[in-house]
Specification:
alpha+beta; OB fold (Dihydrolipoamide Acetyltransferase, E2P); Arc Repressor Mutant, subunit A; 2 domains; five-stranded mixed beta barrel; three-stranded antiparallel β-sheet; 7 helices; globular
Length: 258
């Protein structure tokens, strides 16, 4: 599915300029999405996005609902305008996918204040919603990050496999047992719709009994195979979506459902 060939030696995880593509806000029109949609972040391949079935405004990979998706690939090309970056992202699972990111680069802003697009041949992780413009399917991304460690690519692929296995297990178990779906999925499999890494981090924080919450260093120690930057991104997402909150400082967290 994925090529093992390096895209280009220009990839440099220590290059600060590669952090310019992060956009904290959602594009216009996203604020009114339902809360359950916001919880459903699904790691996918580009092929899954392009081959997903559509029912009205909803997309599905098999029976898995694709609300917010996360893809990882490299920038094949990018077109820049004052309001939007249009990326062509490649992950070797199919044809490249267009990822659109809306920006607020106003004319009176200084050049160093404007958001810069990621350069070609940069590996990136994009989170957003599937959309269709002019009959062409794309992802409108609220967040795009440069990979700081290529192990994030391996983690992403494992999360895709785990997500499909988890969904199949939930479906089979719910068919055999008469239980409350929400309670069952939360207690046995974490927060429905979140990736494996997101649920791992949430569970570590939730299981920490200390009044001051879980120190982020504890998460680093328990998830040694995951980069610190990746863990910080997950914590930022969980905090933004209301699953966790900071306590005594910005390195201690408690779960909202703990």
């Amino acid at each position: 599915m994925w090529s093992t060939q390096s895209v280009d030696d220009s990839y440099n995880p220590n290059n600060d300029s590669l952090q310019g593509g992060y956009m904290a806000g959602r594009p216009g029109g996203e604020e009114d999405e339902k809360e359950d949609d916001l919880l459903n972040v699904v790691p996918v391949t580009i092929a899954e996005v392009l081959n997903a079935t559509q029912s009205k405004s909803k997309f599905y990979s098999g029976k898995i609902p694709l609300s917010h998706v996360q893809i990882i690939g490299w920038v094949k090309s990018v077109e820049e305008s004052s309001t939007r970056f249009d990326y062509e992202i490649e992950d070797y699972s199919g044809v490249p996918l267009t990822v659109k990111q809306f920006v607020l680069n106003e004319g009176q802003m200084n050049e160093d204040e404007k958001m810069k697009p990621f350069p070609e041949k940069t590996y990136v992780r994009a989170c957003g919603k599937i959309r269709s413009f002019g009959g062409q399917r794309c992802v409108v991304a609220g967040r795009i990050f440069a990979l700081s460690d290529m192990n994030e690519l391996t983690t992403h692929l494992l999360e895709i496999i785990h997500g499909h296995m988890m969904f199949s297990t939930i479906q089979e178990t719910n068919h055999k047992q008469s239980v409350n779906n929400n309670d069952y999925e939360t207690s046995s499999f974490g927060i429905p719709g979140l990736g494996h890494l997101h649920n791992q981090v949430h569970q570590i924080i939730k299981s920490t009994p200390d009044d001051e919450g879980c120190d982020i260093s504890k998460i680093f120690r328990q998830l040694r195979g995951v980069t610190e930057n990746n863990i910080r991104d997950v914590i930022e997402f969980l905090s933004a979506e209301g699953h966790i909150y900071s306590t005594i400082d910005e390195t201690h967290f408690k779960a909202t459902d703990g």
